[in-house]
Design a protein that fits this description.
The complex is a heterodimer of chains A (372) and B (519).
Chain A: H1 2-10, H2 14-19, H3 25-43, H4 48-60, H5 64-87, H6 95-112, H7 117-146, H8 150-156, H9 158-172, E1 194-195, E2 201-202, H10 204-221, H11 223-233, H12 235-240, H13 245-272, H14 279-283, H15 285-295, H16 300-323, H17 329-362, H18 368-371
Antiparallel strand pairs in A: 1-2
Helix pairs in contact in A: 3-17, 4-5, 4-16, 5-10, 5-13, 5-15, 5-16, 6-7, 6-9, 6-13, 7-13, 10-11, 10-16, 15-16, 16-17
Chain B: E1 12-21, E2 24-34, E3 39-44, H1 50-57, E4 65-70, E5 73-75, H2 80-85, E6 88-91, H3 103-108, E7 114-115, E8 118-119, H4 121-134, H5 150-163, E9 168-172, H6 180-195, E10 199-204, H7 207-213, E11 216-221, E12 224-230, H8 236-244, E13 262-272, E14 278-288, E15 292-296, H9 303-311, E16 318-323, E17 326-327, H10 332-339, E18 341-344, H11 359-364, E19 374-375, E20 378-379, H12 381-394, H13 411-423, E21 429-433, H14 441-456, E22 460-465, H15 468-474, E23 477-482, E24 485-490, H16 497-504
Parallel strand pairs in B: 3-10, 3-11, 6-9, 9-10, 15-22, 15-23, 18-21, 21-22
Antiparallel strand pairs in B: 1-2, 1-4, 4-5, 7-8, 11-12, 13-14, 13-16, 16-17, 19-20, 23-24
Helix pairs in contact in B: 13-14
Classes of the chains: A mainly alpha (372), B alpha/beta (519).
């Protein structure tokens, strides 16, 4: 890491040198993005310093921290859900479907199960996890048994997931009093409590923290975590070493789906209090989570940091719009620029590392099997 | 700069070229002068800097210091396109061809002859046919590339360079994939090209080829030029001493006792590939304790599929693989490994390692579920680290530490990682597929010693190699495969490369009754 850092700095662009403070790719990417957006704000006739000030205070003062954490919960959870299969080399684009169906299932359980609140919450999450896992397993089974690529099948399954939740809500669980297609409101006893010492954010934050720690430990300390790491680098090497790749695919897609389903359950029990058709899709959390997972290179701790950062950008962006003439869309532009800048910082580094490794091993490369 | 270009002006010259990578000087003050119309061999061990030098010559990397001159003119290669424009052509080990297109289409790609807006196919076909005929390359321009044998593909690559009018042809380890017969005819072609006035740079570490083909030799060691000689004035011994810095002994001590009981039994094994084509037909043999069984075969004769079935990567269509009497059917790789089969795969990059994983992680693979390495699924990190340290030390793997990524290692060192991992667990059978392919003389010596040590420790070794001298030197018995069948069993003391080559290519068949094999 240090070596690539020094080799980079010798050939870094003049812009980077000018920035000077570019100690890490992430920091320099952030600085660069904020500078670019400052220019955009200037062009739209506003004061970027004031706009960024509002962005900052919007995310850090008043209701800001609570909102940031509440928004961060589903983003981080979805990123973790997607990172599990991603880390072993499986590109799973089905997070949205698992998220929506998990949320729907949790709502149905919470409304219909007549039991003490904590038990209802527990069962709702359990059922949401099962439903999410099943939806995640469909493409996994399709790949291992029928050789349907997960990349495609998982993406395609998002549409029927939405449609199924929508159809069932409309025809069997609709609240006649509601103006939009939605279930009835959940009983108050089934709502997830808030935590006062966490700025009044949802208690689900603790669940996410436990999840981050568990996934970190799994990735770094366990034999299956080691296997999935190796599979993500070179699947053929994994197979050669005796890793049961089909089993790994099933387990990682299933557990990723379970987490996505629970993230959906949190959205209902922890936030909206009822399942409203299309609401979960509309948040875009599944896709923000995907971006976070990609940017964090599927590692648990960076996912937590990046997820909270993106949540803060969104929350601060709303404040910026309220208090200045700068529209909320600019926060989205900023988010996009950050992603691009980070991707530009990270991708060439990986690419360069790979190509220098190629040069080092070129002497002896034998690609005979490809031509034989 | 070039006021008078005399006949003495080198075709290609490098002056005091230095290229540094973090932690290594890949080329250290290297000067190289290649005369017009000669075959110039560049030899050196892995990591000696041959590939960096080649990448500099072909515009893939730019040197930190030094100059490149083509026919006396100072040049600067910003990309390979500049190198091609300067008249350089490269034949890589990995062929860069479009498999579904014809030979002619591949050859003219990027420089297509046109009539108006359209590619003039007839002209292209004729040009390629003419070019092929002129140098005795014997390639049909209308053949589809994916149908061609490796030896022919290489000729297509040569044609590609010639079509772009390369005056200097650089060949990187060109014989690694060829049969002895194909190698001889490649040498014929290269000599014809030289006699036509073209210049050949031939990168290799096979000294017999250097002696047979080249006019002059440059030897690299640790990034520096250590020897420049006329081939006629040197010997393999001098070259190998220059390459390694010491004298190397590649002879192998014969077994001091007879083979023991049969360990690995392959019974009537037949394998169909995913297209239903039969790759292995009714193969039976045994590997006993204390012997090295060599399998000689041309690439694509079914030996890869056979190996995959033996190590559990592939399910046989018919027949079985048994170890010490236990049928391993349906056990998968982990079952085969647990039963006691370790495996050095042919391709250490694609199969035998994970480049961006650490040395320690690479050394663990395959054994992560051994009780000593985990407790209820939690890795015992101290034991894993200790294991890596021990192997790095005892196999003299040159790494900065157990956390260095193996993608940064030289080929010979990476192969040591693979060999160390597979030998560490002292399994009863070792399957070694091309274990010394593309590694230098010193590493070959080391790996051969390890295989012989396995044999002497009464374990069984199945050696698959296209290097016939290796098969001849190491094997207790030799099996020859052709088109998925074992066509001969030979005694290494009673045969030679020429005879094996004839069986390998199907020219001879010694129909051996399956029952008499393996005893």
């Amino acid at each position: 890491m240090d070596q690539s850092q020094t080799s980079r700095s010798t050939q870094s662009s003049s812009l980077e040198r000018w920035l000077g403070a570019a100690t890490s790719p992430a920091v320099s990417a952030l600085v660069l993005s904020f500078l670019i957006c400052a220019v955009i704000i200037l062009l739209s006739g506003e004061n970027p310093i004031r706009a960024y000030g509002e962005l900052w205070s919007g995310a850090t003062t008043g209701a800001g921290p609570r909102t940031v954490i509440n928004r961060g919960i589903p983003i981080v959870a979805m990123a973790l859900a997607i990172s599990i299969p991603f880390r072993s080399g499986i590109i799973n684009l089905g997070g949205e479907g698992q998220f929506v169906l998990g949320g729907f299932a949790a709502a149905v359980v919470a409304i219909n199960l007549d039991a003490p609140g904590p038990l209802v919450i527990f069962v709702s999450f359990l059922v949401a996890a099962i439903v999410g896992a099943v939806w995640g397993l469909l493409p996994a089974v399709g790949q291992t048994w029928l050789r349907l690529p997960i990349l495609i099948s998982s993406l395609l399954l998002n549409t029927p997931a939405r449609a199924l939740a929508s159809y069932l809500t409309k025809n069997y669980f609709a609240d006649p009093a509601a103006t939009s297609t939605s279930t009835e409101a959940l009983p108050a006893s089934t709502r997830i409590p808030t935590i006062s010492w966490l700025s009044g954010a949802s208690a689900s934050a603790l669940g996410v923290a436990v999840l981050v720690a568990a996934i970190y430990a799994f990735n770094r300390r366990t034999a299956p975590g080691y296997q999935s790491h190796i599979s993500g680098i070179n699947l053929k090497f994994s197979e050669y070493g005796g890793v049961g790749v089909s089993r790994q695919t099933i387990l990682s897609m299933g557990s990723g789906g379970a987490i996505a389903g629970m993230a959906g359950a949190h959205m209902i029990l922890g936030q909206s209090g009822r399942f409203v058709d299309y609401d979960l899709v509309g948040t875009g959390f599944a896709w923000t989570g995907l971006l976070v997972a990609l940017l964090a290179l599927h590692r648990a701790i960076p996912i937590l940091a990046a997820g909270l950062f993106f949540a803060a950008l969104q929350v601060g962006g709303l404040a910026m719009q309220r208090n200045t003439g700068v529209s909320w869309q600019l926060a989205q532009v900023l988010q996009a620029v950050v992603i691009l800048a980070l991707a530009m910082q990270i991708a060439p580094r990986l690419w360069r590392r790979r190509s220098s490794a190629d040069v080092a091993s070129h002497d002896t490369d034998e690609y005979g099997s490809a031509t034989g | 700069m070039s006021l008078a270009v005399s006949s003495e002006t080198p075709e290609l010259e490098l002056r005091r070229v230095t290229k540094r990578y973090p932690g290594v000087v890949a080329n250290d003050d290297v000067s190289l002068s290649v005369r017009s119309g000669e075959i110039h061999a560049i030899v050196g061990e892995n990591g000696a800097g041959k590939s960096t030098l080649m990448s500099i010559l072909y515009g893939l990397v730019s040197p930190d210091e030094g100059e490149i001159l083509v026919r006396g003119d100072l040049v600067e290669f910003r990309s390979t396109l500049d190198a091609i424009d300067a008249g350089l052509g490269m034949v890589h080990q990995e062929f860069k061809l479009f498999p579904t297109m014809t030979v002619a289409e591949n050859v003219v790609y990027g420089h297509e002859p046109r009539s108006g807006w359209l590619i003039d196919r007839n002209l292209a076909n004729n040009q390629v046919a003419e070019l092929a005929e002129g140098y005795g390359l014997g390639v049909d321009p209308l053949a589809t590339v994916e149908d061609l044998r490796v030896g022919v593909l290489q000729r297509v690559e040569i044609l590609k360079a010639l079509y772009r009018d390369a005056r200097v042809l650089i060949l990187d380890e060109p014989t690694a994939v060829l049969t002895p017969q194909e190698r001889d005819s490649l040498f014929e072609v290269l000599r014809r090209l030289r006699d036509d006035g073209r210049t050949i740079i031939f990168i290799t570490h096979k000294l017999n080829e250097v002696m047979a083909l080249s006019d002059r030799v440059t030897v690299l060691r640790r990034g520096q030029v250590v020897l420049r000689v006329n081939t006629a004035g040197t010997s393999p011994g001098q070259l190998s001493t220059a390459m390694t810095g010491r004298s190397v002994d590649t002879s192998v001590r014969p077994a001091d006792h007879d083979s023991g009981e049969a360990l690995l039994c392959v019974n009537s094994l037949s394998i169909d590939d995913s297209n239903g084509i039969r790759r292995v037909r009714d193969v039976s043999f045994e590997v006993a304790a204390g012997e090295i069984v060599g399998i000689a075969a041309v690439a694509g004769s079914g030996q890869s599929e056979l190996v995959e079935a033996i190590v559990g990567l592939r399910r046989p269509t018919e027949g079985s693989v048994a170890l010490a009497g236990n049928d391993l059917a349906g056990h998968g790789v982990s079952g085969h490994r647990a039963a006691g089969i370790s495996f050095i795969p042919e391709n250490r990059h694609r199969v035998g390692s994970a480049g961006s994983a650490t040395t320690s992680e690479n050394l663990l693979m395959g054994y992560q579920w051994q009780p000593r390495f985990h407790k209820a699924g939690w890795l015992r990190r101290k034991v894993v680290a200790q294991h890596a340290d021990e192997l790095i030390k005892s196999y003299d793997i040159k790494v900065s530490g157990p956390n260095q990524k193996v993608g940064e290692l030289s080929g010979g060192n990476l192969q040591k990682v693979v060999v160390a991992r597979e030998l560490a667990h002292e399994t009863s059978i070792l399957v070694a597929e091309q274990p010394t392919r593309g590694v230098d003389v010193g590493a070959i010596e080391f790996i051969h010693a390890q295989l012989v040590a396995q044999r002497d420790a009464d374990r069984g070794v199945l050696l698959i190699s296209a290097e016939l001298w290796e098969i001849l030197a190491l094997s207790t018995r030799i099996l020859v495969m052709f088109e998925g069948q074992i066509v001969a069993e030979l005694d290494p003391t009673m045969t030679n490369e020429a005879e094996i080559g004839l069986y390998m290519t199907g020219a001879h068949t010694q129909w051996v009754d399956a029952e008499t094999l393996g005893t």
